[in-house]
Amino acid sequence: MISKFKNLLEKRAFGVCSYLGRKMGIASARVRIYFIYISFVALGSPIIFYLFVAFWLNVRDYIRRKRNMLWE
Description:
Blueprint: H1 2-13, H2 15-24, H3 28-41, H4 46-71
Helix pairs in contact: 2-3
């Protein structure tokens, strides 16, 4: 039960960090730690960037799903 919750949380809440980690070629755990450290130093302003990227990824996935349905 706990592992299912952990997998759900990592997939939904940390999708941004996983995406950025894959694009930059570093571990997603390191990206998460950088977000935490930068948030403390910059008083939470990286959270705005995180939310923007999360919104952008959701829109991109929505568009891809729509495009695939169109070609089926």
